[in-house]
Structures are given as C-alpha cells and as structure tokens.
Amino acid sequence: MCFAGARRILGRTRRSRGLIGAEASLVTLLGWSFLASTLVPISSEAALFAVLKLHADLAWPAIGVATLGNTLGGLTTYLIGRYIGSKKPLTQLERVRRHGSPLLVLAWLPFVGDALCLAAGWAKLNWIAVALWSAAGRFARYWLVAQGALW
User: Fold this and answer.
1) Contacts with 21 (C-beta within 8 Å, 6 or more apart), sequence order
2) pLDDT in tens, 1-56
3) Long-range contacts of 51-55 (CB under 8 A, 24+ apart)
4) Quick check: 145 pLDDT over 70?
5) For residues 34 and 73, is the Cβ–Cβ distance under 8 A?
6) Where are the extended beta strands (E) located within the chain?
7) Quick one: average pLDDT of 111-136?
C-alpha cells in the first residue's frame, strides 16, 4: 500500500509538471528576471530555482534566459539614468566614473546594483561594455543558483 501511495503522489507530481510547460516556464522566468532587476522587489533567484526544480533539463536555457532578462532590466535602468536623469549628483556616480564599466559586474547586487546601472547611464558609459560586464556578473550568480537547485 505504501508503494501504491508513493506511485499516486509521483503521478500527481508528474502531471502537475505538465501544467507548466517548458516554454511557459522560460517566458515567465524572462519577465520575472527583467522585473527583478528594476525597482520591483521580487527575487529572480527564486524563480530560477523553481523553474529548475520543475525542468532540470532546462538548466542552460534557464540560466541564459534569466541572465538575459535581468541584464535587459539593468539596461532599462541604465537608459533611465542616461536620458531622464536630472543633473543632481548621485552617490555612486564618481565611483562608476573612476572604475568604469567593469564595476557593473556587481550590478546583480540588491539596491546597489540599481544605483550602479543608473549611475552608469548618468555617466554615459559605453552601453555595450555595461551590458557585457553586467551580464557576466548576473550569469555567475545564476550559475551558482542553478548549482544549488540541481544538487
């Protein structure tokens, strides 16, 4: 009887995984990670963890999608700093000017990352370098989260 009960639970788990398809999971992860890199207080790491628990075979695509979405959200903040920002000084601006785009490898950090992206736009740093450094840091973070989810 215990074996039959376990089979029923396992069957339900497999069926529920079918409700959230791989494509829908990746699209949701893209939107969630985009929003998480703006001022919306949500966790993209939790979303990636959940997707990998449901679809372990999607590790690399999920890491890529989360990195892309989070980087695009950071670039949105960069654009706000570049085109809409006022002329009042920012606290992170001098640090970003001094260290340049490589400092954006820390753009994944909560609160500080948003300020760094905004300051990078304000300082009018090269957007390609900002995107590459930012993506590298975000990729490293998501890779570590994936290792934890797949352990």
Assistant:
1) none
2) 333 443 443 344 444 455 578 899 999 999 999 999 887 889 999 999 999 999 99
3) 51/25, 51/26, 52/146, 52/149, 52/150, 53/149, 54/17, 54/20, 54/25, 55/17, 55/22, 55/25
4) yes
5) yes
6) none
7) 91
Query: Could you tell me the two tokens for 35?
Result: 């929003």
- Buried b or exposed e, range 94-110, using 16+ CB within 10 angstroms: eebeeeebebbbebbee
pLDDT tens per residue, range 92-116? 677 778 888 898 899 988 878 888 8
CA torsion 94-99-101-107 (nearest 10°) is -70
Does the predicted model carry a pTM greater than 0.85?
A: no
CB 23 within 8 A of CB 62: no
- Cα separation of 131 and 120, whole Å? 10
Sign of torsion over alpha carbons 31, 36, 41, 46: positive
